[in-house]
Specification:
This protein is an all-beta fold. The protein has one domain: Cupredoxins -  blue copper proteins (Immunoglobulin-like, Sandwich). It has no helices and 8 strands. Strand 1 and strand 2 form a beta hairpin.
């Protein structure tokens, strides 16, 4: 967690780090690609919005409402790469 209340999740080769974060409503989670394999961020709730598949770059997502949001990499599947955002 950053001092401003936002969070960063690093996408390494076949893992999210950390796998879960808790933020306040109105804050942003940024996924940061740090490995060499192609990955994406896909939400169980498609209305949240998904990232494209990529090997570098970032994907920022601001969460306006409280809830629990599960995500995974659709390339590698839920059994390999999954995580949770808890918004309070």
């Amino acid at each position: 967690m950053q001092s401003d209340g936002n969070a960063i999740i690093n996408i390494r080769d076949n893992s999210f780090n950390p796998t879960s974060v808790t933020i306040l409503a109105g804050k942003t989670v940024t996924w940061n690609w740090t490995g060499s394999n192609q990955h994406n961020v896909t939400f169980d709730n498609v209305a949240v919005g998904n990232s494209v598949s990529q090997t570098t770059g970032t994907f920022p997502k601001t969460f306006a409402t409280a809830g629990t949001f599960t995500f995974y990499c659709s390339i590698h599947g839920k059994a390999v790469m999954t995580g949770t955002i808890t918004v309070q």
